[in-house]
Amino acid sequence: MFSNHTPECFPKMGEQDPSDRLRGDHLKETKENGTGSFSQFSSSVRAMVRIRQKYLAIKKRRLEIAAVSSQGFISPRSTSPKVFTFENLQEPINSNPSSPRKRRKKRKGRVLYPSSTLRAVPTKERSRAKNCLYLLCIIVFLQIYNAIENLDDHVLKYDLDGLEKTLKREVFGQQEVAESLLGHLQDYLSTYVHNKPLVLSLHGPTGVGKSHLGRLLAQHFRSVVGDDLVMQYFVLHHCPTDDNIPQCTKSLDSHVSEMVTQAEEEEKIPVFIFDEVEHMPRELMDTLQDLIHPKNNNEYLNAIYILISNLGHEDITKFVLHNSSVAISGRLSLTQELNPWLRSYLERHHVIFLEAELLPFMLLEKSHVMDCFIDEMSREGFYPDRSHVERLAEELAYYIVGEQEFSHTGCRQVVAKVNLL
Predict the structure, then answer these.
(1) In sequence order, which residues have a C-beta less than 8 Å from that of residue 167 and are 6 or more positions away?
(2) In the 8-state DSSP scheme, what is residue 365?
(3) Which tops the pLDDT comparison, 226 or 89?
(4) Could you tell me the pLDDT band of residue 379, with boundaries at 50, 70 and 90?
């Protein structure tokens, strides 16, 4: 587009045509001088014709622009020159409003895949951090594996497999108690450092094998940790009268302190077995409670306490007799059914049973009593004749519930019967 101002080289509208003026001047000069040649005249005429054609083309273009401006599509401009900038630029208006406006399509990003013809793919340099991470994982794995091996080594020296075989061979009718006892010992003896001692409380009627199990545990642990780290305490023997209670509490405290100190030096776990706990005086129970829950010394935390008593035996007997059909068939767990009630009863007796693991014993059947006779007769050197054993077992008293017979005294009278043979 051209600006609206008239260039200085072109005449303004209404002025004389420069070609006419030039022609007149030239003719005048020719007449005056009389010396111009024909060739100079023809070249001048051609130049004037070109100028005139260019002028007419420019004039025609200006008239077209003025006509378009008068229709309102292009705003008229001033005759003064302006400086071009990118400000206030407007998109050109479509001359045909009925035609739809074309939208510019956005170029979608294409995923470029590497050419399969490349023979060698450039590889990045491996980071050293990955090697350190792999090394750290290997070290952690070795540490965990070593810890597991150490746990196995620690529990192996207590020979719990041998204890399991002994219980299966010599304890009759108490399979659930034996399995629960071995499970607690296995978990506790797997490590040496603990945050509290292991307290097991054995309960049941007379003659079901509580004291016998305590003697088996004492014999086993004496063989694996030594006599000095196993204490078997009979209340009626070590503290027979109330007059000896102060001396008994002092002696018990000092004896337990010496044993835990020695066990700490040897990195072993001592075992304390207390039988006839139902006859233990209140003061002695409080002393035992202080030893089980120490306040300052950590060596007291690595110890096993086994409490044996017949507390709650009457209710255990009633429960077994009332649920004998499901109990014998194996659909009833005495531990799960009896523990809530038994724990509430024992808490009223003393707070020492609050954190103890309770192991209730079941009544023995007639078949279990016969096994006791066979075992005792074999120990005494008698031939265990089956008919003879049945005759001896029938001399005992039983609870008869349907087709099942439960002994009143368990295997307690078996030794006396065999000694009379």
Answers:
(1) 178, 181, 182, 213, 216
(2) B
(3) 226
(4) confident
Nearest to 320 by CA among 220, 410, 383: 410
409 within 8 A of 402, measured Cβ to Cβ = no
Written as one letter, the residue type at 2 is F
* CA–CA dist 89, 77 (Å, integer): 15
Phi, psi of 387 (to 5 degrees): -65, -40
Query: Are 251 and 291 a contacting pair, CB within 8 Å?
Result: no
Point out which residues pair with 410 in neighbouring strands: none
pTM, two decimals, is 0.63
pLDDT digits (tens, 9 = 90+) for 113-154: 555 555 555 555 666 777 788 888 888 888 776 665 555 566
What's the CA gap between 287 and 250, in Å, rounded? 9
Per-residue pLDDT reduced to its tens digit, 187-207? 999 887 788 899 999 998 989
H/E stretch holding 315: helix 313-322
Find, among 311, 310, 312, 336, the residue nearest to 323 by Cα.
Answer: 336
Nearest to 258, CA basis, from 300, 306, 293, 213: 300
**What is the residue whose two structure tokens read 């001088």?**
33
Distances (CA, A) of 117 to 81, 113, 114, 122, 392: 62, 11, 9, 14, 96
- In this structure, the number of other CB atoms found within 10 A of the CB of residue 396 comes to 20
CB of 212 closer than 8 Å to CB of 170:
yes
Residues 40 and 409: their CA atoms lie apart, in Å, by: 159
> What is the spatial distance between Cα 421 and Cα 415, in angstroms, rounded to a whole number?
10
* Bridging pattern class, strands 404-407 and 398-401: antiparallel
DSSP character for 301? Answer: G
Alpha-carbon dihedral 149, 152, 156, 162, rounded to 10 degrees: -140
